Batch of 2 targets.
Target 1
Amino acid sequence: MPAMSAGQAVVEALRLEGVKYIFGVVGSCYVEVLDALYGRTDIQFLGVRHEQVAAHMADAYARAGGLPGVCMATNGPGATNLLTGVASAYVNHAPMIVITGAPMISQMLRDSFQELDQLTLFRPVTKAQIQIQRGDRVPELVRHAFRVAMAGKKGPVLVDLPRDMLNETAEMAFVPPERYRWAQRDAGDGALVQRAAEVLSQAVAPVVIAGGGVIWSGAQAEVLAVAERLTAAVVTSYGRNDAVPHDHPLVIGAFGRAGSAEAAEAVRGADVILAVGTRLGHFTTFFDHRFIPEQAKIIQIEVDEKELGRHYPLEVGILGDAKAVLGGILPRLPHKPRDEARLSAIQQLRQQRRQRMASAGASDALPLKPQRVYRELRAVLPRNAIVTIDAGAAASHAYNQLDFYEPQTFITPGDLGSVGAGFPSALGAKLARPDRPVVCLCGDGGFLMTSQDLETAVREGIAVVTVVMTNNCWGSEKAYQKYFFNERYVGSDFGNPRFDEYARLFGAQGLRVEKPEELRPALEKALAAAVPTVLEIPVDPDELPFPARSDAVRKKD
């Protein structure tokens, strides 16, 4: 067993896990770790300008690349700045290792400089919180952090490092991941799998809802095979538009908030719903029967037992891996002739969606409508492009207006709805998949929250395209005030700099479009660039989608 400092051991433990980047802001409490990275090319500390950005980058790195992202911050304010991005990863089930510095063990519980109870602080938004108090335990406990982050429903794990512990020298026992972490595919209870197959075989109007578990288990082929055997419509859960390829003849589109009206129509007509790798969560279903018919029989496949039947009573609930369970259901389904009437109905819904999108994007009015921007995006985005979006009105059109063909190509803020996540998510996704074009879609409010890291993008040569749809307002919130409060606007409007000029100040390429005929050439120029690019597009500030959560607003007399 080699002898080394605990700081060096942290780096070696991360390297063994295949970590290439540690995203963060330098902190004096872990200079031993930073020094152990000096001169290395196999693993890099990638410095950013705000810790929230580091967390969002690690989140997107994991979701785009499939391996845990790593972020790092000093104790106190550095840790608190990480919190929003870590919470976003937690609700999005992204595996992540969150490393925080901590005060010296000898000074803990004395309210020392920048001392906070970080274990408690992160407890609600991490799967586990680990403080390493002995240097020789670094390899063991870092291993455990990765094990927990990648097990079952994936998520972030906190590793807290007291600064004096990092100075300790000890013999370190390292174990490669393939010797201690074994990926398991739970195929589910055989009797329940058989029962699910029987229910599906008797379905008159089956629909498959494909969720994030389909992406993480690589179950796209199995979802489509089951759908083809049943002639079942396929829709995707909220934010998981990339779970199945949208050009498959049975795939209608995204379901739930900001999703496709045609997908909702298909689900409303279902007598049997096969929910694969989805919690049937809030923005997928709203926990009521506006989309999910009350009489429908629901079969749910989930890797997390607590989610089975949590929001709707089930006909069958199967605990297991999406790919493995579907692999067990498929051979139990009878071979029937394709249901031509059902296929025709699905094709009609697909055609309705295409016509609706074309109609919505046909306007040449000025200021430009966001839908017009999405029409051009559909025309120019490469099939393998990764799209990250921010929270907010302008970016929300992506759920309904874009098509996706490959898994891990759509990165959203998910259920936390973190404004400002879009741009740093693009940076993380591009580092995970440098071979692919990466485009961030955001509004002006969200972009300016984290845009200081244009400096990071330029310094590190991270050539992402950021499309900023400027409407000089917090659109989602302004929509509530428009539709429910008689246009009494409070705090909704603001001003901006010219973002094309702003980008050029950082050394990025800055573009601006105001006319419809300029859209496609500008998008093509941005996608062809080898440098970070910001394309600003002023859009109609009155184009505010009707709020999806209208049921939460008190009706006015």
Target 2
Amino acid sequence: MEHLNFGTQLLTLCEIFNEQFFVIPDYQRGYAWEKKQVEELLNDIKHLMDDGVDLKHYTGTIVLSQPDNTSNEYHVVDGQQRLTTLSVVLHVLSTYLSGDEKSNFIKKYLWRGEIGSEQAVLTLNKDTRKYFENVIITEHESSTELATLEAHNRLLECKQVTKKWFITELGDASSLQRIKTIQNTIENELGFLVYAPKEDDETGVMFEVINNRGKGLSELEKVKNYLIYCSVKLKAKTLRKKIDDGWSEILFNLNAAKKIFTEDEAAFLRYCVTVYFSASKNEGQYGYNLIKERFNLDVAMHDAEKRNAMVQALEAFVEFLKHAALWYARLYGRVHNGLSNELLPVLDKLRGQERHASIMPLFLALTIKQGQAPTELARLLNLVEILNFRVYMAKGITPRNDTGQADLFAYAAQYYHNQGIDGLLKTLDDNELDISTEEQALEYRLVYFTQRHSPESKFKQSFVLEQDTYDDFYNWTGIRYFLMNYEAELQPNRTIDIDKILKMRAEGKSADYYSVEHVWASNNRSEDNNRPQDKFQKRRLGNFTLLEFRINSKISNADISEKIDTLYEASSSPDVSHLVHVQKMCEDGRTAIKELEGRRKGKDYYKDISDLLNDKQEKRYIDFATQRWSTEHYFGNNHVLARLEAETVSD
């Protein structure tokens, strides 16, 4: 392939693939196109066919780089999504060809080499390579190659959408003429601008062009491109290799964490720069720009000492991103290899909370800095879990989801960068405590934050529904997590599967899914018990339990007394709930029913049963919550409470 520049000419797939091999480097993200993008490309092909104009149609840009000592192999720097999709389209097209024509077509676009040692013309990165070759671009699909990553699922969807499109376009007859029209359009009428510089300074320019030409790159992709650009401009080949290898690890671990969408990557980068660069909350929103500012090439290009310092700084930043992605995989993907068992329970609890925006910089600062001290790390992460629940998950505690977020981000950066006890406590101006370590200072700071935003009285009140409100605990986003923790408290020797509360109804099977259910069903006796006092009882926290979906489906709208009796009397049945808090609810419910024994079963009968049961359940729930999410065992708790009380009095 000739050395080309942007805009010189449009090349067809026939010209691009002529005797060339293409590789998606491991530092590139996996296949990310969704059904919509695949259908748009197929619609472009259809429009070209229907237009009947024999002209090249601009389809996109492909940017390649040629590694040293290769003559016909190119790395795909930009355009991999489109090139991968077209390879799938070419594969499906090949299934409609036969004989020598099919053999020659496959050799040109899909597989080359002797039988038994064929090489794919397009090689994907290591996460998707085997799946692509064994399932997607073959007629002999492997029955053992399972989709384990989102990129695998998207590749399979791409193939399915493409096969359906061919069936629609060709109809039942699959006419030879129509096949030829599709083949000619794909091979000769799709036009691409191709740029293929050597691995020299042009590569650095190329990455900056990609970043700034308005293409929809994620912030993380822009950062990768800029770091590679820096390595080339600084003539630092070792750094370039560390970036390539490091990015492969970063993407692998983000995949394992199932954080593969653009917004996930943006959040990851935001948390990382917040900690690493001590960035403000606002600065963290623009991670790519911040990194360009902090790693300014102008000051390092012409001074050997500054150049070396810059190279070392870039290497250290890539290393930080690698560690951060690994802890993402440990938290969200349960990748626990080499991890102390002390940390597993708190990682599960944090994962179950779902809402993490305010605490993730703290999580990264603590894990990366304290990863080799599991006991201390577990203690601090448990405090972070308490803070997150009390401040950001408990109902109605803060007016906004990001209340106090800037403070937490600052604590994370101060702690990570060893800014000392004074740095962590400077806004408190507190010299009365004997604080000797940064860990104690951080504990004190986080306890103060928790108690200031979610004091004991306010936290307790968050579990009580006001009579004149239309709030409904069924809509509380933290209710499943709360009830699962309550169940864990009642069964301390049993491992509670957090995944059973994370699954949504569409994902779960009846045997492995816990749903939040009304004890007094919302639709039960709705014609008779439709008064405000009835609706109030049905919305209270005490009216909710977790139930296995298979059980609730059988009794969902039964009378409250019938539902309690059914659950209670089925204790010896294999279909009964094995959740202890459900059994406690049944015991309290039967006590309430007994108190009303002999009463006529009118409107107030069901309301009064619910009222008695709600009172009992809510007391148990509140007693549990105040112990479970207490800060009393953390450094300086009593001092914090006294200080806050004094501040309240002075106000």
